[in-house]
Amino acid sequence: MTHSESQILSLLDGELSGGVAPEEAPARDRLTGMLSREALLARLGHTIARAAAQPRSGFALLFLDLDRFKLVNHAYGHEAGDQLLRQVAERVRATSRATDAVLPTTRGNAAARLGGDEFVVVLEGLSRPEEAHAVAERLLAALAADYWIQGTRVTISASIGVVHSDGGYGNASDLLRDADAAMYAAKSAGRGRYAVFDASMSQRTRLRVDTERELRAAIDTEQLTLVYQPIVSLQTGAVVGIEALVRWQHPVKGLIPPAEFLPIAVESGLIKPIGEWVAHKACRDFARLLRQMGAAAPEFVSVNLSRRQLGDPALPATLAAILHDAGLEPRHLHLEITESELMTDFAVAKQTLDAIKALGIALSVDDFGTGYSSLASLHEFPIDIFKLDRSFMASSMRSAQGPALVAVAHAMILLARNINVRVIAEGVETAEQLALLQSLQCDMAQGYFLGRPMPLEALATHRVPLQVQSEP
Length: 472
Ligand code: C2E
Ligand code: MG
Ligand code: MG
Fold this sequence. Notes:
The chain has two domains: 3-197, Reverse transcriptase/Diguanylate cyclase domain (Alpha-Beta Plaits), CATH 3.30.70.270; 211-468, Alpha-Beta Barrel (TIM Barrel). The protein contains 17 helices and 16 strands. It has helices spanning 3-16, 37-53, 69-76, 78-96, 130-144, 172-188, 199-220, 258-268, 271-293, 307-310, 315-326, 339-344, 346-358, 375-378, 402-418, 431-439, 456-459, and strands spanning 58-66, 110-115, 118-126, 147-149, 152-154, 158-164, 194-196, 224-233, 239-250, 254-256, 300-304, 333-338, 362-368, 385-388, 422-425, 444-445. The protein has an eight-stranded mixed beta barrel with strand order 8-9-11-12-13-14-15-16. The chain has a five-stranded mixed sheet with strand order 2-3-1-6-7, with helices on both faces. A two-stranded antiparallel ribbon has the order 4-5. Strand 14, helix 15 (402-418) and strand 15 (422-425) form a beta-alpha-beta unit. The radius of gyration is 26 Å and the shape is elongated. The structure holds ligand C2E and magnesium ion (2 copies). Ligand C2E binds at residues 229, 245-246, 257-259, 262, 275, 278, 304-306, 336, 366-367, 390, 427-429, 447-448, 453.
């Protein structure tokens, strides 16, 4: 979770638990009874001083952040979120054998809640650093066990950043800063794990902060652009749709692909303004294309959504406003969400997607076949299109696994037809792949062979190299 997010959460928390005036900083966290941030900082001051006086006895700080906690609040409500935080606090306390004594000079392990879903554990009197790692492992295991909240089973994981006293820390805030960087590294490495701080992490933090700042400016100074890739009907050879793909035209670094900046946009929350900009621009561009090309225009423009956007309860209303502003009917807009992101946030995704679907917008599952979704759960979503991941194409069709891949692709196309879902094959690069897809009766295809992503203006004159098979 980013800082702005956790700040908002702690504000919410303050509100829910009656609010606390800053001047009377309490020693305990009202929700969990753990040490407050202020009490923790005071105790850490003494811990640091004692360790400096007795270099043989080390300590470690564990910075713990729940993974995707906001979704619990969103899916089950804030009361459930509070209950979960109390149970988490219970497990953290028990696992770390922390005392709740608020006296700053108290010795021994301490556990605090900083606000939101951020917790800190201080382990004292360690003879070896590995002892702290063992506690981190135990914490991860304890927190991953099921929770029962209002009769519902909830699971959540945590990411932990670990900092050791041998870093020569002189004050508590440097310790917290580095533990936060290590926690962030644990999240980027895939969540549900711990990472131990090293110097490269603060470099990466700086790079991330720089990129974030530049990206913020990029939105304001219109350095972002959209290109469009044709989606072609395999029956008629016509361009039936276009997919909007974002690019960052950086004044110094040149063209930056989405894979390099979208992860930072997602982590920082900038994906919200960027995603809205993309949807808005794509809808206005498409309305223009409809006016320009008339009957020859594609039927839809497809816009990619990130998981973070799906978690925004205001998304359906935002999309409705964007369509209205662009003067575009909802049937002209498709939204793509990758299979893996759909599956991680099942409950949230379902609510939001049902609401979007009710507007008349079509939904595609992107990179389909890579997300290990259970078909039963996929069926719960109002899906119109599967976009068969390009790993099914590529050179692999010729490789040793080629025949098996073709068989799986074929099975997916048949399955889709049976549940009334259409299929777009992604990443078609050769005439051979195209012919194969036609023989498998795939509905649509997209890929460099049929057209690279291009500026809007190039679409009207784009020619698709597709031999249409005559109907028998
Ligand atoms: P995606 O949605 O699966 O988009 C298809 C990607 O595959 C695009 O990469 C496209 O240029 C590339 N591609 C298309 N045909 C071929 C082909 O024949 N061969 C190969 N090797 N690649 C092909 P791009 O534009 O770099 O985008 C990468 C990913 O970034 C997208 O994957 C999408 O998940 C994400 N993305 C792009 N624009 C946006 C956006 O506006 N919002 C969000 N949330 N995500 C976006
Ligand atoms: Mg896509
Ligand atoms: Mg894709």
